[in-house]
Each structure stands twice: as structure tokens, then as C-alpha cells.
């Protein structure tokens, strides 16, 4: 791996309720890889970085919004790999740059702004042709790493998961991370994705594209709390409780919704006795800075 995985830990979550139900619950702390860069994003980039280096290309070129965890992960990963990075950002340049974009710039990313209309066309052949011509020596990474290469990188996460784990859970954005888990998991391990987007309808097509195959998995799509980056007092309460009781910090966009969904599924009896559940802490904690002061106790 190009990045440091030594700090990854597996934290056990235990309480009387879980003990009574005979359910093991642990959290794979990928967030500990880096304070700003989401752990899963670095895994998704692994084979893109390797390809760019093998082909002695200049670097990676990718896309994202002004708050994109993927964009900053790309900037960071390229910096430590000794590669250049180019980011195409959705929308006009703001008077005050986001923390995310400032971090991208700090890591040496060359930023280009696209109007929203242009950005929507970023997957069109014409547009990509133009970009390829202008940035001949850069490997293009789709937004969010949504590509089989990204999923193959995410599959490496399963190397850090205990062999006797029965269920592996992750938050779902583009579903690339979950596709990786599906490919890397043992045949008897069930994969559960908790969608953070409202109305995730094309999940089977996405998984087919990312893995090249049809697969079974479980989708929990009732825990988006109103949609992407939406929150409620109930979610915030849950985050504070989780921290107070188990010393586990989560982010309100991804990991809190995933943990909420898993706790709820446990309570509703989804998991059989003696289940051994591993939840991925994919990171994203820096996104909590957008919450009003004193919302969280951590
Ligand atoms: C991007 C992200 C996800 C979602 O990953 P996908 O591979 O897009 O499904 C989950 N958690 C965090 C913290 C992220 O930044």
C-alpha cells in the first residue's frame, strides 16, 4: 500500500444488549489512516495510482464538488506517491474556498472549475476526448472512484477484516466500496450497505458494472435521514451517544447513518444469534466542522 495502514484498529462495541443477543459488533477504523482523508477513498485509488506509476504518467485527474472527500483523497494520495493531480470542480469558484479545496491545493492539486452544466457532461465522450487531449499524461479517475479499478482497490479492505466475521457493513455513496467488499469477502460473509442517498434504485446495475458480475447483498435504504448530507436531531443525538458510550466518533453524512442503521437492524432482529458483525468506519470526520458549534460532544 502506498499509504500507512499501521494505525487501522478493530474496535469492539459491547453493551448488555449485544451480549444478551449474542451478537459481536466491531468497527474497522479506516478513519485512523488519516485525519482528513477518508480511509475508503485511499483504497479505491490504490490501483489507479499503481497504474499511473507503472505507465510513468504524470498523475491523476478527477472530478468532485467543493466538499468532495474523493477530491482531497486524490490530491493527498498523489502527493505521497510523487504524482501530480488535477481536479475538476463542480460550480464556479467561490469567494471563500471550502476547507476541502484548500486542502486539495495544499497537497498540490491543480484546480479547474466547471459550470454545473459543463460538469453534468463530464462523462460524455466529447468532453473526455478534450480532457484526454489537454491532459495526455494523466490517468482519468471517474468521480468518487466509481469504476471497476476503484472497486478492486476497495476489495483490499477485506485483508483487514477478521476471518470469522459473518457480516460486513458499510455506508453507500457510489457503492464502489461495497462492490470491493463483495469481491474481497469470503463466500459465507454477508455484505450490507446502508444508503446515505434517498432513492437508491440502480444499485444492482452499479454492482454488476463494478464487479463484472451479479451478486447478492443486503441494502438498507431507510436510513438516509432525508437525503445526502441531511440530518435530524435524532441522528445527532445518536452520534453523541455513540461517542459517550463507546468512544466512537462518526460523521453525520456517512458513518453515523450506517451505524444507526445497523443498530436498528440488530434491534429489529435482522442478525441471527452468534453473528459477528464488522462495520467499516470509512472516515469523513472532518465534514463535521460544518455543524454549528457545540452540536457534537467530540
Ligand atoms: C465516499 C465515502 C463513502 C462512500 O463510499 P462509496 O464507495 O462512494 O460508496 C463512505 N464513507 C465516507 C466517509 C466517504 O467519504
Oligomer: single chain
> What best-fitting shape do the alpha-carbon axes yield?
globular
Q: Specify the helix fraction band.
A: 25-40%
Instruction: Give the class-level CATH name of the largest domain.
Output: Alpha Beta
Task: Provide the residue-averaged pLDDT.
Answer: 96
Assigned CATH architecture of the largest domain: 3-Layer(aba) Sandwich
Bound molecules: pyridoxal-5'-phosphate
- What distance lies between the first and last C-alpha atoms, to the nearest angstrom? 30 Å
Q: How would you spell out the order of helices and strands?
A: EHEHEHEHEHHEHEHEHEHHE
Q: In words, what does this structure look like?
A:
This protein is an alpha/beta fold and 298 residues long. The protein folds into two domains: 10-35 and 149-290, Rossmann fold; 41-145, Rossmann fold (3-Layer(aba) Sandwich), CATH 3.40.50. 37% of the residues lie in helices and 18% in strands. The protein contains eleven helices and ten strands. The chain has helices at 16-21, 39-54, 69-81, 99-106, 116-120, 125-134, 148-155, 176-184, 203-211, 233-246, 255-267; strands at 10-13, 24-29, 59-64, 84-90, 109-114, 138-140, 167-172, 190-195, 218-220, 276-281. A six-stranded mixed β-sheet has the order 1-2-10-7-8-9, sandwiched between helices. The chain has a four-stranded parallel β-sheet with strand order 5-4-3-6. Helix 2 packs across helix 7 (148-155), helix 7 packs across helix 8 (176-184) and helix 8 (176-184) crosses helix 9 (203-211). The protein is globular and about 60 Å long. Residues 38, 40-41, 69, 144, 171-177, 251, 254-255, 282-284 line the site of pyridoxal-5'-phosphate.
Amino acid at each position: 500500500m502506498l499509504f500507512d495502514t499501521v494505525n487501522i484498529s478493530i474496535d469492539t462495541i459491547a453493551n448488555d444488549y449485544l451480549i444478551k443477543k449474542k451478537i459481536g459488533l466491531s468497527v474497522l477504523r479506516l478513519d485512523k489512516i488519516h485525519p482528513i482523508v477518508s480511509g475508503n477513498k485511499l483504497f479505491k485509488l490504490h490501483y489507479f495510482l499503481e497504474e499511473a506509476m507503472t505507465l510513468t504518467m504524470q498523475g491523476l485527474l478527477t472530478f468532485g464538488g467543493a466538499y468532495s472527500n474523493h477530491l482531497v483523497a486524490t490530491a493527498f494520495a498523489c502527493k505521497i506517491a510523487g504524482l501530480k493531480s488535477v481536479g475538476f470542480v463542480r460550480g464556479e469558484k467561490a469567494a471563500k474556498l471550502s476547507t476541502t479545496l484548500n486542502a486539495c491545493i495544499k497537497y498540490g492539486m491543480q484546480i479547474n472549475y466547471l459550470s454545473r452544466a459543463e460538469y453534468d457532461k463530464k462523462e460524455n465522450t466529447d468532453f473526455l476526448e478534450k480532457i484526454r487531449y489537454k491532459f495526455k499524461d494523466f490517468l482519468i479517475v471517474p468521480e468518487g472512484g466509481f469504476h471497476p479499478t476503484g472497486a478492486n482497490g476497495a476489495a483490499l479492505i477485506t485483508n483487514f477484516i477478521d476471518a470469522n466475521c459473518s457480516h460486513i457493513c458499510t455506508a453507500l455513496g457510489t457503492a464502489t466500496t461495497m462492490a470491493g467488499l463483495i469481491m474481497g469477502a469470503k463466500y459465507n460473509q454477508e455484505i450490507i450497505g446502508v444508503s446515505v442517498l434517498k432513492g437508491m434504485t440502480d444499485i444492482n446495475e452499479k454492482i454488476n458494472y463494478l464487479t463484472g458480475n451479479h451478486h447478492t447483498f443486503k441494502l438498507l435504504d431507510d436510513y438516509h435521514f432525508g437525503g445526502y448530507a441531511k440530518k435530524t436531531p435524532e441522528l445527532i443525538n445518536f452520534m453523541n451517544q455513540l461517542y459517550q458510550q463507546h468512544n466512537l466518533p462518526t460523521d453525520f453524512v456517512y458513518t453515523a447513518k450506517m451505524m444507526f442503521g445497523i443498530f436498528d437492524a440488530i434491534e429489529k432482529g435482522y442478525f441471527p444469534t452468534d453473528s459477528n458483525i464488522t462495520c467499516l468506519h470509512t472516515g469523513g470526520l472532518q465534514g463535521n466542522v460544518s455543524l454549528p458549534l457545540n452540536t457534537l460532544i467530540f
